[in-house]
Amino acid sequence: MLAYYLELGLRSLRRNPMLTALMVMAIGFGVAASMITWSVFRAVSGNPIPDKSAQLFTPQIDSWGPQQNLPHNEPAEALDYVDATALMHAHAAKRQTVFYMVGMRVMPGGSRELPLNANGYAVTSDFFTMFEVPFRYGSGWSAQDDHARAADVVISDTLNQKLFGGADSVGRMINLGGHGYRVVGVTHHWNPKPRFYDLFSTQGFADEPDIYMVFNRAIDLHMHPDGRNTCRGSLSFTNWQSYLQSNCAWITPWVELDTPAEVASYRRFLTNYAAEQQRAGRFNWAPNVRLRDVVQWMDYEQVVPPESRISLVVSLGFFVICLVNTIGLLLAKFLRRSGEIGVRRALGATRQEIYTQYLIEAGTVGLAGGVLGLLFTAAGVSSVGILFPPQIARLAHLDLSLVGLTLLVAIIATVLAAFYPAWRAAHVQPAWQLKSN
Hints:
Blueprint: H1 2-15, H2 17-45, E1 56-61, H3 81-90, E2 95-106, E3 116-123, H4 126-130, E4 135-138, H5 143-148, E5 152-156, H6 157-164, E6 173-176, E7 179-187, H7 199-202, E8 211-214, H8 215-220, H9 240-244, E9 252-256, H10 260-279, E10 289-293, H11 294-300, H12 306-335, H13 338-346, H14 351-381, H15 390-393, H16 400-417, H17 419-426, H18 430-436
Parallel strand pairs: 3-8, 5-7
Antiparallel strand pairs: 1-9, 1-10, 2-3, 2-9, 4-7, 5-8, 6-7
Helix pairs in contact: 1-14, 2-12, 2-14, 2-16, 12-17, 13-18, 14-16, 14-17
């Protein structure tokens, strides 16, 4: 019987082509607008490391004071060199890392004649384990290499393809900024979105890093940060050492803490450290520290662009308006056939059968609207750059899950919209219809 009702529904699409076209277009435009904005919102709001997001924390220490802090007396989003190295030397967490963004030139070698620009990070050895960086060849370096300030480097698969044609380059030498480095690892493609570990310099969206080098070696080479660098007060430093001793925040710290007890212990450690700095006369204010996990950090940094939330709400509102119009069109379409319904009821069809038939017919309208919406969604996703920055726009894409969701939303929404029109059709009085005919 359901197959018969489906056949009736498909025939009905051709019976009133104008009404059908209006309903299909309303559903198509509404669902496409929602899916386009949803594809952007989905790309920027997901948890980039769901299995460890509750174990990774970024500490903040107030080194500026309440007069120069961020709004609501929030400390700087990164650490200065003094506090960053103090946390590393204390080693109060199971794993810990500090890093900052660097930029260098890969000098020509082999058959290449022109240098390449390479961007990446100066990191410590725990970086790779903490953030689950996948490797195609080799691995990261050891803690001993950190202390030895080794000239080791991990490169991305993309850079490895450019320099070595994709071959295993572990043990090979490359020239970065005039210095030789030994390749110890090659990563698989790894660029979590949002880039939760560096919201300070990238705001969460940037191209994949090319290199990772030893933090201590970058400091020894006086490599200035290639990302953000936030200072307060009068700047009087004139050389690298005075810059390291300044209150400029440019180093991002992360720690890995497995249990609530470890989290509480590390928070006490931060408070005690700030209290020691106050007693030593470096800070003239009470301890003011923060310890946020990945999700809390993303919320604090407002990594989801406000325009994506607004666009999603507006598009959902537009979809509701389209559905309201669809309800009216379905009501007109169904009640036009009151005579037919009266005959069927007089021949023994139950209200339940009438109700089911018209809901299935509405489902066919929803399916047609979903197919049209899919075409609009594909066109809209390719034009997202008109409304959003390029680094965000390129994250939106049409995949199988979005195709399925588009069709499913169109069908379910149309069937829900048809509940009232179908109920009115099922309650047509057969005697009145037969008498009027």
